[in-house]
Amino acid sequence: MANNKDAERYLANRQKEIDGAALYLALAEAEKQPQMAEVYKRLSASEGKHAAAWDRKLEELHVPIPPRKPTGRTRILIWLAKRFGPQFVLPTITGNEKADSMAYDGQADAEAREFSKDEKSHARLISMASNSSRGLPGGSVAQMEGRHRAGGGNALRAAVLGANDGLVSILSLVMGVAGATDSNSAVLIAGMAGLLAGAGSMALGEWLSVQSSRELYENQIKIEAEEIAESPEQEQEELALIYQSKGLPEERARELAAHMMADKGSILDTLAREELGIDPEELGGSAYEAAFTSFFLFAVGAIFPLFPFLFWSGNLAIYISLAVSGVGLFIIGAAITLMTGRGILFSGTRQVLVGIAAALLTFGIGRLIGVSLT
Q1: Structural domain of residue 246, as residue ranges?
Q2: Residue 70 maps to which CATH number?
Q3: Where is average pLDDT lowest: 23-27, 77-81, 183-187, 247-251?
Q4: Could you tell me if residue 317 is inside a domain?
């Protein structure tokens, strides 16, 4: 019995390491910054060695070793990283790493105690990377100065929640109107109005958020340019501290900082990236692209409960709308597992139950209002 439990634990540990190795290798391939790509490669190699150690433990128990194959969840994260870049999935990976860093706590094996330290180190490293627009940040130095403010986000989380907002809000609206009236045209008019109003509001909010961030970044870079002109020695010292925080010896860090400060043409770009964690070429991305994406995601979610009323009417349209929305809610719940690590069935079912409960509540309220008006 003990051997069976150990084998299950070794297999679970091995799978975590296989997933980590595959994911970090994909990040290395997608990463444009050579230094960070090298970091990801080393992390991948470390996870691969851990997986090999669990292979040996399984061999000792004479347990058949399955092929090294990442889970479906990991394959989705790899696809997203290759399609949208490492920064798109880093916040999600950061949360997973923090959870995985404690997975070995309480396991008595010597390997588990050793790997626990490695995983905690990986979690800290990835957390640093996710707080920067590119690579490992020097943001801690900037925060000590008190003149700069950093911002961050989770594009994957925003995408999932944007579609969820559109689906749940329009489903509730449509069900409320359907409960109050038998008119398909009234349901469609209310649904389309809600879609346009909600998507427009989301788009405007996202545009203001990104545009404000761009203006903030521009101001931070302006401040940095003034500091370079007024106190280059202090900026050189800060740059040396940043390189030290990345692991360089103090003498080498000071030498590199002096070399970088001598390059007047690119020192502002260097300090913006290293100290502020800002890519001067992107400045947080396009406000218009962010607005369009938010509008699109909300609208995609809103279409699920709305389109059945284009083809059917009465109770049949209501049932089909609930069924189609249930499928959409399950898909969104499954997507949320990329961030939470929970089971797809649990997360998807929970999302369906919550969404349908909200729809039935508004349907009941609509029915009461419709009856009282009649």
Answers
A1: 222-274
A2: 1.20.1260.10
A3: 247-251
A4: yes
Q: How many CA atoms lie within 13 A of 55 on its CB side?
A: 12
The single-letter DSSP state of residue 292 is H
Sequential DSSP letters for 42-109:
HHHHHHHHHHHHHHHHHHHTTPPPPP----HHHHHHHHHHHHH-HHHHHHHHHHHHHHHTTTTTT--S
Are 119 and 19 contacting, i.e. CB atoms less than 8 angstroms apart?
no
Query: CA angle, corner 152, sides to 148 and 72, nearest 5?
Result: 155
Does residue 150 sit within a domain? no
**Cβ contact 225:282 at 8 Å:** no
pLDDT in tens, 29-83: 888 877 778 878 888 888 898 899 889 888 888 888 899 999 888 888 898 888 8
Residue 146 lies in a domain: no
Instruction: Classify 232 as helix, strand or coil.
Output: helix
Alpha carbon distance 279, 285 (integer Å): 9
For residues 206 and 297, the answer to whether their CB atoms sit within 8 Å is no
Could you tell me the two tokens for 241?
């501290």
Q: Are residues 76 and 195 in the same domain?
A: no
User: Can you tell me the distance from the alpha carbon of 127 to that of 258, in angstroms, rounded to the nearest whole number?
Assistant: 28
Residue 280 counted as domain residue = no
**Is the four-CA dihedral 176, 180, 184, 187 of positive or negative sign?**
negative
Q: Which two tokens stand for residue 240?
A: 């040396």
How many domains are contained in the chain?
A: 3
Cα–Cα distance for residue pair 20/147, rounded to 1 Å: 37
The larger pLDDT score, comparing residue 54 to residue 102, is at 54
pLDDT digits (tens, 9 = 90+) for 232-289: 777 777 777 777 766 677 788 788 878 777 776 677 777 666 666 666 666 666 788 8
**Are residues 127 and 165 both part of a single domain?**
no
For 204-232, write each residue's pLDDT tens digit: 988 888 888 788 777 777 777 777 777 77
198 in the same domain as 61: no
Of residues 119 and 311, more confidence is placed in: 311
Structure tokens at 349: 């079912």
Do 191 and 340 fall within a single domain? yes
Sign of dihedral through CA atoms 230, 267, 255, 243?
positive
DSSP structure class, residue 136: S
